[in-house]
Amino acid sequence: MNFSDLGLSPEVLRAVEDAGYKQPTPIQEQAIPYVLMGRDVLGCAQTGTGKTASFTLPMIDILASGRARARMPRTLVIEPTRELAAQVSEAFDVYGKHHKLNQALLIGGESFTDQERKLDRGVDVLIATPGRLIDLFERGKILLSDVKILVIDEADRMLDMGFIPDVERIVGLLPKIRQTLFFSATMPPEIRRLADAFLMNPKEISVAPPASPAATVTQGLVVVQPDQKRDVLRRLIASENVKNALIFCNRKRDVDILYRSLKRHGLDVAALHGDMPQSKRTETLERFRNDEIRLLVASDVAARGLDIQGMSHVFNFDVPIHAEDYVHRIGRTGRAGREGRAFTLAAPEDGRFVQTIEQLIGKPIPPVSVDGIAAATLSFEDGDGRSRGRSRRGHGKSHGAAPQHGKPRQSAPRHEPPRAAKPHEPAHKPETARQPAPARFAPITMGATPPAEPPRATAASADKPDRHNSDDGPRVVGFGDHMPAFLARRAARG
Ligand code: AMP
């Protein structure tokens, strides 16, 4: 199917051609005709599938007729993070270049003045994070009674970030008769409930299950004691051919701590998390995109959905608590058909999280050993100390590092604590201990042992949801001219 078969206007088709897109992605192919028909859409799709264009392209055509009135936006796009909101705003610029549409980007943080000025002029498209939108509504700067199309993007992320009450409140302020486009990477029951409440007879579309990491990403798992993680990370960075890497921590304060540690070791590194001022976040991202920084330590909130071209590595300094985040994180590399490598550093107590991830992706993450570092064993005990599964050793003695492909090389001694609750059983039944793989990848050399760990930095910032802080700095540009391989896969028709 071609873009020209979807019912889009010649102007939008020209913009698509200018963007270098040859063919619609599965979500675009399925969603665009329904959006143009005025139907509600429930899309199960993650970033990287082309979902942004699946709603922006038809919206631009729908908006081509009619005009916005002051303070009364005609359409509203709600995004969980400022970076994603900025990317969507960029999409409207790119695809709407042959139209005269006014848009406003309302993201949390500083000066309201520019945003209010734009609202006063009348906007066709309002792209907002929930917190700032509610702030402006409460100040009487905006009326939502003229919104004809509502887009809720990354609904599951809104849930994770505690934004659902805000979203429900916002939806309550909109006209009942409207078109709603609702996207989520996953559909847990809470998200289903929201979709049922917000949508009327939606066309359901599901593409490229979020549980399938790009086939071009080589994965590896290192199980070590927590106090060795930084050492392990530095060794991996030293031994891997890292062009540029995102390093994920679960908590903002750990982002700061790790950033300072890597900096002290002379590495070319920056940090990105939700407590930083938006101007700093935007500037840091731009420098990372422009290859001025090699390593970026980030939280999930800050890095979610970022479209950075050609990243060679992702390191999970912490095992993500939500299994889907693992897929999102490692999906930052291996894009556009390029090879990417993703290493996850697990502490023994992360056993159950690793297990859930492996269930989601349907296979074990191959174990990796790092020379000079004693391997630890994943534990599957719950808070009461009861075993919930089988204990697995990361590996025996240390070898050169190499992600393992296929089956474990040899059986390992079994450590079988009493069997318990089935739901925690990994889908793939990892019965053997994990052994390091043959040195198919460059082994980690001990010659260049990194210096000892400097003293710990203190925690800098508390974890809290990422809202009410932002600015109007330069926009994040999130569009490339590539077609990631998995975009081409056929979608399951809903
Ligand atoms: P998204 O899922 O909206 O974040 O899009 C992911 C990436 O795919 C962005 O870099 C888009 O520019 C790109 N993209 C979107 N649609 C297409 C298409 N039809 N062909 C090629 N690339 C696309």
Describe the 3D structure.
This protein is an alpha/beta fold and 494 residues long. It has 2 domains: 3-206, P-loop containing nucleotide triphosphate hydrolases (Rossmann fold, 3-Layer(aba) Sandwich), CATH 3.40.50; 217-382, Rossmann fold (3-Layer(aba) Sandwich), CATH 3.40.50. The protein has 15 helices and 15 strands. The chain has helices spanning 10-18, 26-37, 51-63, 82-95, 113-121, 130-138, 155-160, 164-172, 189-198, 229-239, 252-264, 278-289, 300-303, 323-330, 351-361, and strands at 41-44, 75-78, 103-106, 125-128, 149-152, 179-184, 203-206, 217-223, 245-248, 269-272, 295-298, 313-316, 340-346, 377-378, 392-393. The chain has a 7-stranded parallel sheet with strand order 3-4-2-5-6-1-7, with helices on both faces. The chain has a 6-stranded parallel sheet with strand order 8-13-12-9-11-10, sandwiched between helices. Helix 12 links the parallel strand 10 and strand 11. Helix 2 (26-37) runs parallel beside helix 3, helix 3 crosses helix 4 and helix 14 crosses helix 15 (351-361). It starts with 9 loop residues before the first helix and ends in a 101-residue tail after the last strand. Residues 383-489 have low confidence and may be disordered.
